[in-house]
Amino acid sequence: MAKPKTIFICNKCGAEFSQWFGKCANCDTYDSLVEENATPFGVDIPTKGGVGNWHVAPGGIKSSSKKPAKARASLTFDQISDRQIARWESGYGELDRVLGGGVVPGSMVLIGGDPGIGKSTLLLQVSNELSQRYRILYVTGEESGQQVKLRASRLGMSNPINVDSEADDTKKEAIKNTENNVENTEDDLAHHSIASDLYVLPETDLEEILREIDSLKPNLAVIDSIQTVFFPALTSAPGSVAQVRECTAALMKVAKHEDITMLIVGHVTKEGTIAGPRVLEHLVDTVLYFEGDRFASHRLLRTVKNRFGATHEIGIFEMVSNGLREVPNPSELFLGNRDDPAPGTAIVVACEGTRPIVVELQALVSPTSYTSPRRAGTGIDYNRLVQILAVLEKRVGIPMSKLDSYVASAGGLNVEEPAVDLGIAIAIVASFRDRIVDPGTVLIGEVGLGGQVRSVSQMELRLKEAAKLGFKRAIIPKGQKFPDLNIEILAVSKVIDAIIAAIPHQSLEDIDLETDEDEE
Ligand code: TYD
Ligand code: MG
């Protein structure tokens, strides 16, 4: 037998090389190549007794059936059934929103996020909800059955897990024993059916997982996490690029063939020793990121890729003592104490996908003790901050180059879109002057390099949200259309006009007009 060939795979992008390089030629990452055994593509490695009708092999999964495959006839749109369009409601509106209106049956969704952010919690809650109507298999490679059960009872799931109690083990055995007899499986399952249709499988071996999927025939399977799943025939360690890629590809094939919806957890690590879900993102239908400050309670579920809906949608949850709670009105989470406003704060309306969120921005400006001033932005784009500071120096005459400037969004929410520029500018000026911005005013607008206020997208959505939350006034770009709402509109064309309008008792004389620009 020929000596197994080794290849080098980039941990970051998954590119393959025949020799080791210090830098990946594909993605330019240093020291990211790892040595792995190359198994000839698509070899049909005999598996332990086979996985139902499937054989897993590196490079793909094959049907072991010797019968010739049925010809796949191409279809016209009329002939293709519309069934796919009927989405499932997950019981969590926030999740349905980021998925584009619910779970698409048969789709493969990857949920990425830092460890400890709440991925397992979210998926267990969703599994519990969906198990009222569908059969769910929750595969956990990170926790034991007892741990999952403990979490389930912490989440207040009334009739948690089926599989891990002793009695249920017997039932599962009974189900497993019928695995080769597909005809009877349904009957057996019905016979053994338990109130809730949620099954837990603590397992990391891909073959065992596929076997269980084949015998249980769930409507939906959760894999928590893909980094723990391994295929024994591949010599590389679980979590390596090759393992992650092959396991996902195998699961994908089964999912598409058997019409099983899959929710897959993927860890993201900063070190890059574990394959990040980047490699997976190409394979799956939908990629969601679960993010948030581990020290703050809110969590954002963000769409990065979606074959069945829009990207850049967000869903907002809050981690409380009994799990994740939906936040139906997120703006309240990101607004400071409006009864007692502090100098240097301004309210903006950011849009995440189609979702407007009213956020408080805080600025702190103070004389610098360094030769070059310190500038930092939390939750806002640093380059935009620097640009706005330059505009304020040149067009408004504030000596920003002699001042340290710090700007942060409340709750650390990322608001990196141009529409918050005006709010950043106003917050900085208010901090510089130690004034309070009228707390009933929201600021919407992009700041141009010439000090002009430019139009932004989705103005109607933003104004509606501000009006809904009781804001009295909005300062918006001149010339932009706005709907008739219960909110006073003040259209401005220059940053300086916005400053005068937003900061009470602020007159032009108060501002050091060092430039020869005549802003009036
Ligand atoms: P987990 O879902 O295990 O994170 P992940 O799967 O993304 O690694 O979430 C773990 C964190 O959530 C942990 O720090 C504790 C916290 N938590 C709560 O605050 N309340 C709860 O009800 C649960 C189940 C977890
Ligand atoms: Mg987890």
Describe the structure.
By secondary structure, this protein is α/β, with parallel strands linked by helices. The chain folds into three domains: 1-39; 93-158 and 193-328, P-loop containing nucleotide triphosphate hydrolases (Rossmann fold); 332-519, Ribosomal Protein S5, domain 2 (2-Layer Sandwich). Helices cover 25% and strands 24% of the residues. The chain contains twelve helices and 23 strands. The chain has a nine-stranded mixed sheet with strand order 8-7-9-10-6-11-12-13-14, with helices on both faces. It is globular, with a radius of gyration of 28 Å. The termini are far apart. Magnesium ion (MG) binds next to helix 2. The site of magnesium ion has 4 residues, from helix 2. Residues 404-520 are annotated as: Lon-protease-like.
Could you give the order of strands across the largest sheet? 8-7-9-10-6-11-12-13-14
Task: Tell me the helix content.
Answer: 25-40%
What ligands are attached or bound here? thymidine-5'-diphosphate, magnesium ion
Which strand-content bin applies to the residues? 15-25%
Our measurement of the CA-to-CA distance between the termini, rounded to an integer number of angstroms, reads 85 Å
Question: What is the SS-derived class?
Answer: alpha/beta
CATH topology of the largest domain: Rossmann fold
Looking at CATH, the homologous superfamily of the largest domain is P-loop containing nucleotide triphosphate hydrolases
**Structural domain count:** 3
| CATH architectural group of the largest domain | 3-Layer(aba) Sandwich
